[in-house]
Amino acid sequence: MRRVSFGSADCPVARALDVIGDWWSLLIVRDAFDGVRRFGAFQKNLGVAKGMLATRLQALVEAGVLELAPASDGSAYSEYVLTAKGRDLFVVVAALRQWGEDHLFAAGEPRSALVDARDGAPVARLEVRAADARPLAFDETRVEKARPAKGA
Amino acid sequence: MRRVSFGSADCPVARALDVIGDWWSLLIVRDAFDGVRRFGAFQKNLGVAKGMLATRLQALVEAGVLELAPASDGSAYSEYVLTAKGRDLFVVVAALRQWGEDHLFAAGEPRSALVDARDGAPVARLEVRAADARPLAFDETRVEKARPAKGA
DNA sequence: AATTTCAGTCTCAAAATAAGACTGGACTTG
DNA sequence: CAAGTCCAGTCTTATTTTGAGACTGAAATT
Questions:
Q1: Tens digit of pLDDT for each residue in B15-59?
Q2: Three-state DSSP class for residue B29
Q3: How far apart are CA A30 and CA A97, in angstroms?
Q4: CATH number, span A12-140
Q5: What PANTHER family does this protein map onto (chains A, B) (predicted)?
Q6: Domain extents for chain A?
Q7: Which residues contact A62 (CB under 8 A, 6 or more apart)?
Q8: Distance, angstroms, CA A125 to C1' D18?
Q9: Could you read off the pLDDT of A5-25 as tens digits, one per residue?
Q10: What CA–CA distance (Å, rounded) separates B15 from A63?
Q11: Which residue is nearest to nucleotide C27 (CA to C1')?
Q12: Residue B149: what pLDDT?
């Protein structure tokens, strides 16, 4: 009765969710994008139980999303920082943010926005596009199954 | 000791995860994008316990991601179909798919790809871009907190 | 009419979660 | 440098969630 794992599924979405598909992981990653690095800072920001946090951080380190860096302010403590793999989750978090902004706030409710740090202008809307930049709806795409590696 | 809820957090990411941030919801949505509509089809595809599935489907309907449609093939059963809100999750699923493809497959391992249905060409890479389409890294953006609604 | 499929609900054991007490090393400060 | 505080976890325990499957009743099939 172990919780099911999608780690070896064919579908990349399933594999991705296996790594960052739980209640807390993406919030940890979001905080990491905001510059949070220390255990205590995550804990305070998220209000998560320390045991949960410890487990999740370990899992994310093991998954290669975060890594334990030795210092940064000279102290002997270590810090959790995003790896390249973790930084690549930026689009995922941004997509979730966009969807949340679009659908999960009441009409007059104040909401935050992701903006270009240079000029403060909101970032462009995320969309799935064809190679020629034409926007594609979900029913204008399909999943091409497992193209067998030709060269290898 | 109920599982924490992010439903009323300020952060759109947290709110989004409150709706679709559990182990199964996004896989259900992914299957819905693939055309799955019936309870039994979801159950068979995902291998999820029926109780889980029933709970999740109800939650997604309640959240307005799916809706219960009366028929489609004439039978008396009903079907779960994506609402507009649910269809807007396409980018999220696509972003997860891209990340999974990039980071969660071994070198020679065959993998699927999301392609333009028209010509079979892979869709463009998802990226966060500025208003002028310039790609933005995570540290070239910031979150502008809760701009208070001026008009209302 | 009998059988099978569908779409769930119900039950139960195992696992995950939340909350916080506890531990030991780091840091401060007098 | 000794006492007290902070940091980063681990451990414990009560509660909730999950996974697996038995069970139910309506719908479809034969």
A1: 999 999 999 999 999 999 999 999 999 999 999 999 999 999 999
A2: helix
A3: 10
A4: 1.10.10.10
A5: TRANSCRIPTIONAL REGULATOR, MARR FAMILY, TRANSCRIPTIONAL REGULATORY PROTEIN
A6: 12-140
A7: none
A8: 37
A9: 888 888 999 999 999 999 899
A10: 25
A11: A75
A12: 52
Contact assignment for B34 to A143 by CB distance below 8 Å: yes
What Å value separates CA B53 and C1' C12?
A: 18
Size of interface A-B (CB pairs under 8 A): 257
* Nearest-CA residue relative to C1' of C6: B40
DSSP A107-143: TT--EEEEEETTT-PBPPPP--B-TTS-B--GGGEEE
What is the dihedral sign for C-alpha A117, A120, A121, A124? positive
pLDDT given at position A148:
59
Q: Is B66 exposed, middle or buried (0-12, 13-18, 19+ CB in 10 A)?
A: buried
Give the distance from residue B106's alpha carbon to the nearest chain A alpha carbon, in angstroms: 11
**Which B residues, 101 through 130, put their C-beta within 8 Å of a C-beta on chain A?**
101-105, 107-118, 120-124, 126-130
Distance in Å from D9's C1' to B138's CA comes to: 29
pLDDT mean for each 10 residues of chain B (152 residues): 82 96 95 96 95 96 96 89 98 98 94 95 98 96 76 44
Ranges of beta strands (E only) in A54-117 are: 66-69, 79-82, 111-116
Q: What angle do CA B123, B127, B132 make, to 5 degrees?
A: 110
Query: CB–CB of B128/B135 below 8 Å?
Result: yes
Residue B20 has which token pair? Answer: 């679709």
Q: Given its phi and psi angles, is residue A84 left (phi above 0), alpha (psi -120 to 50 degrees) or beta?
A: alpha
- For the CA atoms of A86, A26, A136, B39, the dihedral, rounded to the nearest 10 degrees, stands at 130
A148 and B107 Cβ atoms separated by less than 8 Å? no
